[in-house]
Amino acid sequence: MLYWLSNLSEGGDFFNLFRYITFRAGAAFFTALFFGFIFGWPLITYLRRVQKKGQPIRDDGPQSHLSKAGTPTMGGLLILSALMVSTLLWARLDNGYVWIVLLVTAAFAGIGFADDYAKVSKQNTKGVSSRVRMLLGLLIAGLAALAASLLHPPGLTNQLALPVFKDALINLGILFVPFAMLVIVGAANAVNLTDGLDGLAIMPVMIAAGTLGVIAYTVGRVDFTEYLGVHHVPGTGEILIFVAALIGGGLGFLWYNAPPAAVFMGDTGSLALGGALGAIAVVTKHEIVLAIVGGLFVVEALSVIIQVLYFKRTGKRVFLMAPIHHHFEKKGWGEAQIVIRFWIIALILALIGLATLKLR
Asked: Smallest Cα–Cα separation from 254: which of 73, 37, 64, 55?
């Protein structure tokens, strides 16, 4: 919205700063961060008042989690409010990619909010049925994938770009939309599964988002793409502003979510942020790199899939409990120990994913 101030510039003055994505990204970060600090505690106070008993805790989970009873959920509203306000203020609103990512985020937040509301109001851990959530998620992802395929330049439409291999593309044709749907929905649910300990999901989300933001800015600049030998997707640079706002809002939330959490992110936040990561990967043509950058989320999701399939086949368990962070809890690891070690893993994977830009 504030990009229009650049029209007041005659070159070399203050208003000329608004032309630069990097300046607006920095402003978006601080706007979202201050938003989180200002409205964080009032929101938590309100959630405590209306939810009363807070998020229901699973009886079959680690016993240490029972002490968290009464903690309110839907804290993702804080991140998303800061993210949306900041992005709408600082991004170019004539950019189609920004709207794809924003709308995917908002739509998945709606699914998560409905799920959280059902859990809190009924005081059980079931919420909205998984089938309904999956169908709605696939519908949203399908529309986003179709929009992205229409906005991509002709040479990249319906193509899958391979990292490391220079100019390597696989023409997916009509299969691109189903593939992109799988990426977006898979990312949303993987982040949702990771959100099981205080602060566990939000930091890896910010790390992955920051990495994808650098990639989005890079592939949006023709000079960078020519030097690095990656595919140029005009217009994706504006996504850096969305990512900066996400990181700012995420840090504001982490202030209150650090152990012991004053509020949980809930499905409202985890589904929305996971969907955002998937959407960014799709519009920047870095779907495979997302699997590296978000490798922690992939492992968490795979641990659940492996556990379920193996149990159905043999009646035995591979892990003491899934997702895998609960396995380590059962083995006696402390919550802070798990969280910090998972953060370190997420950072290492992000650096590996970022290195794919140069390795050609």
From this structure: 37
d(CA 220, CA 230): 10
What's residue 80's pLDDT? Answer: 97
Asked if 173 contacts 240 with a C-beta cutoff of 8 angstroms, the reply is: no
What are the angstrom distances between the C-alpha of 244 and each of 80, 110, 318, 319?
Answer: 13, 22, 39, 36
As a whole number of angstroms, the distance between CA 281 and CA 275 comes to 10
Q: Can you give the chain as a three-state secondary structure string?
A: CHHHHHHHCCCCCHHHHHHCHHHHHHHHHHHHHHHHHHHHHHHHHHHHHHHCCCCCCCCCCCHHHHHHCCCCCCCHHHHHHHHHHHHHHHCCCCCHHHHHHHHHHHHHHHHHHHHHHHHHHHCCCCCCCHHHHHHHHHHHHHHHHHHHHHHCCHHHCCEEECCCCCCCEEECHHHHHHHHHHHHHHHHHHHHHHCCCCCCCHHHHHHHHHHHHHHHHHHCCHHHHHHHCCCCCCCHHHHHHHHHHHHHHHHHHHHHHCCCCCCCCHHHHHHHHHHHHHHHHHHCCCHHHHHHHCHHHHHHHHHHHHHHHHHHHHCCCCCCCCCHHHHHHHCCCCHHHHHHHHHHHHHHHHHHHHHCCCCC
The domain limits of the chain are: 95-234+256-355
CA–CA distance, 149 with 96 (Å, rounded to integer): 11
Q: Alpha carbon of 81 to those of 87, 239, 264, 300, 356: distances in Å?
A: 10, 17, 15, 27, 33
pLDDT at 68 over 80: no
Residue 111 has pLDDT above 70, yes or no: yes
Q: Which residue has the tokens 């990426």?
A: 183
Global pTM reads 0.95
Q: Cβ distance 18 to 7 under 8 Å?
A: no
